Amino acid sequence: MSIKSLSWGTVLFVSLASGLGTTVQAAETVTAPVKVKVFAASMFEIGKNTGDRAGEFQHWYERYWKDSEPVAVKGALNPVYCDGDGVCGSVLGMGKVSSSASMQAILLDPNLDFSQAYFIISGVAGTPPARGTIGEVNWGSWVVDYDLGHRWAPEEGEPGAPTFMPRKGYEAVRLFRLNPDLVTWAMRLTADTPLKDSDAARAYRQRYPQEAARRAPFVGAGTHMTGDTFFHGPGMSEQAQYIAKLYGADDYVITEMEAAAITLVIKRLHGDDRVMSLRGAVNYDQGNPNETTLQHLDPAPGQTAGGFAETVENVAAVGSRMVDHIVGNWDTWQAGVPAPSK
């Protein structure tokens, strides 16, 4: 299917030969919407979609949409691209507001049929050094909103006590357990994906004493914490873990800025049984024992983690395995997530 067919319906004007006293009528034919099988969402791209330094979208674009034409969607930050197999994607924008606004606009576009679509929310992220490493790729088992609640300064509460309390009334919008069968499939299909690493990332890991932080890149799963606040430091990391456990989720392993908001939009329109959150870790959520939180948040030149280029490539490599399996076995997947075999 040509992506040009996604444009507004072609209007055909039928006129009779001159001399015939018949009224000229117009007939309109509307092209059927594209049946989306998988939608891959990224949050930002650094420059162009191909040929320069890659951000979150470029490797996806080069794999699936290099020969596709962009289709503008009213209300979305960036165009949508689709290939002939029903794989579509777009750059939604960073943060909860921008990304969810773009997602809703795309879902409501009449040229796209999402009734049986699977969604991969993909991008880069941070990870606590006790649980993750630079270059790893992680599937979300739960998505939790970090921001919804009450917070106060530590000195204004009991010494050592939590400084967060959930706000009542937000239970249905702050916590999402992603389909366990879908997470199981994702891990089975992608756990052995070869991941790239870099010398800079290897050297940077050695600044941390935690065993997990020193690991080579791997594919894992756990709770993704969504916050517009780019929280940083061991205290904030402990609070994120506290919130995850308070809500009954798995261990907090990824900090990102969009997944909870995007999941809510998809859930309200199509349900969340087919939603996946996929993130690659490009930074630790705190400094090593020899630096302050502010030093880690604003590192000197040459003191960053490294591994960004390899991580965005790893995310697309892992995610595309899932996409290709779903599309290649569409007869099995179109009606819903098949039960994983024992």
TrEMBL record:
Give GO BP annotations, semicolon-separated.
nucleoside metabolic process; transmembrane transport
Gene Ontology terms for molecular function:
catalytic activity
Entry keywords, A to Z: Lipoprotein, Signal
What organism does the record attribute this protein to? Skermanella aerolata
InterPro entries with a match to the protein in the record: Nucleoside_phosphorylase_sf, Pur_nuclsid_perm
Q: What's the superkingdom here?
A: Bacteria
Query: Do you know which Gene3D superfamilies this protein is assigned to?
Result: Nucleoside phosphorylase domain
Any signal peptide, and if so, which residues?
1-26
Give the protein's recorded name.
Lipoprotein
